Structures are given as structure tokens and as C-alpha cells.
């Protein structure tokens, strides 16, 4: 089968289209023929070595397709089932092993394969962030950094659905339109304005919570933008990892600081059912607009990474495989 593999950490050029043996299902595993894979910022961390993988390794964190093989001891899945699943950096490929506890059945007539591959990881991330990391409430003021991005757009929509006032940051006027269309009440061009100053002009007390997936370049401004008892949810490193932070700096405003990851919120079956169920309900009720920025081919994954890291994209990037 065709798959993207890296033999060393590095720039987009290390993403090589390779022929590999088609995987076979071990006990408790499924093999899925992938139609679409999502592209996520986390894939670039693994490619660059910010997060580590044994090498050589495939890449890709989510996909949607059809089950083609069912391992021993599997109940509830059969060959031919349409599924979306969270992979283990193995979904930029024609076939992948999918773990039972990270695989969800879909109805392609309701949720097409491309949208399923686009929504799973970022949708679950956004949903767990606004319901668990900081439980967004009616009337809250929320700041979403990089609001036109894949995860940012979904956080804006979910926070608005929960009744919050949303301020989003973006790097360009085109992206400002995307954030506004997603529901942001106010947009700050963080390439030109000071975020804490602009936030204070909008809401002088500061915001109740910040969702910050940008990391290094925005962390301080996020902390400054919070009101007393505010929550800083730092969930990513698009601009680099956040440098060491003095816990004492939380004291003046009695702040809460969290650095969550999706898998820590969907560790149990009950958690998975809750979040996938509520995410699918939002999609079913047309409460979430999933915006696919561009569909790339499997041999164009490097370009997808260049575009994502080059801040050229809004919404979601997907790879069409089959
Ligand atoms: P996005 O589509 O949001 O792309 C990243 C955006 O970050 C860019 O579009 C850009 O928007 C902004 N950005 C700011 N500074 C930089 C920079 N120096 N280089 C590149 N981009 C920059 O990506 P994702 O939605 O896939 O991911 C967003 C964040 O969420 C990432 O940090 C990711 O790791 C994190 N994440 C964390 C998860 C978790 O479990 N903790 C799960 C999923 C995602 P602009 O041009 O407007 O500045």
C-alpha cells in the first residue's frame, strides 16, 4: 500500500510517499481502508521531533473509511462498516490499524467521509475544552487565540452555542472574516494590536477564560487578558512550546492554568460516548459548520504541512486517499 513515512525528523521534505506492507488486524484491532485523513498541527510536531516517535514512522492522527478486516475478539464492528477513528500517527496511508476504543461508526449518508475525517480530532478537542477544561457558561467572556484555524473555529462556534461572548484573535483581515462568520463577536488582529489592551477595551474586567493553541507567542498576553479567577487553557504550541512559567504569577488574579490533551478527556468509554454523542448531535442539528479549506492528495502531504505551518489556511485540511 501507499503511505507517508518519515525516516528522520525535519522539515516537510522528510514526508516521503512509500510503499509499505498492508497492515493486518491483530486481536482487538481493525484494519480500515482510508478514504480521507485529516491533517492536524500535531502531525507537524511529530514530523519535527517536538513530540517523539520511534523511526521510521508513519504520520497522521485521524481518518475515515471502511473496515476491511476485523481482528479476533472484536464485537460491534464488521467488515464494510463505515468508521471514523483517531489514529496513532498512521493515517496518511491507504490502510491503517484502528484501535477499538478510538473508532466510531458513522453513517456516510449523514456524515460524509471527508467531513468525518475533518471533524473528529478537532471537534472532540474543541468539545472537551469548552465542556471540561473550562466549562463555558451563558454570558461568559471567552478569548480564542487563532480563531480562524481548524480547532479555533470550532471552539468559537461551540462557545457561542453555549451562550458566551467570544473574542477571537487572527493574523489577517481575511482570517478576521472567517472568525466573524464562525460567530466571534469581536476580532483582534494580533499581528497589529496588543491582545490584552484590545481585550480590555472590549471588556474592562478581562475574560473568564482563554483557549490558547498558539503557545509561545501568545501565552503572556493570554494570562494578561484574564479577569480575577480566570482560566488559562493552554492546549497547543503552533508558535513554539510555552517557556517555563512561574506558578507564583498565577497569584495576583487567583488564576487557574491547565494544559490539557484530548486523550486525557476521552480515556473511559463513558467519556468517549458523551463527547462523540454530543459532537454528533451538534453536527446533526446543524450547529457546527465544518469548513474544509483544501483537499490534498496523498503525495501532497508535504504541501499541506507547508500551508498549515505557513499560516496560510483557515478551517481544516484533509487528504483524499481513495
Ligand atoms: P490551526 O488550523 O489552528 O493552525 C494553526 C494556526 O495557529 C495558524 O493558522 C495561525 O493562525 C496560528 N499561528 C500563530 N502563530 C503561528 C506560528 N508561529 N506558526 C504557525 N501557526 C501560527 O491548527 P489546528 O487546529 O490543527 O491546531 C491548533 C492548535 O491546537 C495547535 O497548537 C495544536 O497542537 C492544538 N491541538 C491540541 C490538542 C490537544 O489535545 N491538546 C488537540 C488538537 C489540536 P493565524 O494566522 O491566525 O495566527
TrEMBL record:
Coiled coil: none
Keywords: NADP, Oxidoreductase
Domain of life: Eukaryota
Keyword Oxidoreductase: yes
GO CC terms of this entry: cytosol
InterPro entries membership: ADH-like_C, ADH-like_N, ER, GroES-like_sf, NAD(P)-bd_dom_sf, QOR-like, Quin_OxRdtase/zeta-crystal_CS
Keyword check for Coiled coil: no
Domain Enoyl reductase (ER): 10-319
Annotated signal peptide: none
A GO molecular-function annotation: NADPH binding
Pfam families reported in the protein's UniProt record: ADH_N, ADH_zinc_N
PANTHER family: QUINONE OXIDOREDUCTASE PIG3-RELATED, QUINONE OXIDOREDUCTASE-RELATED
Full protein name: Probable quinone oxidoreductase
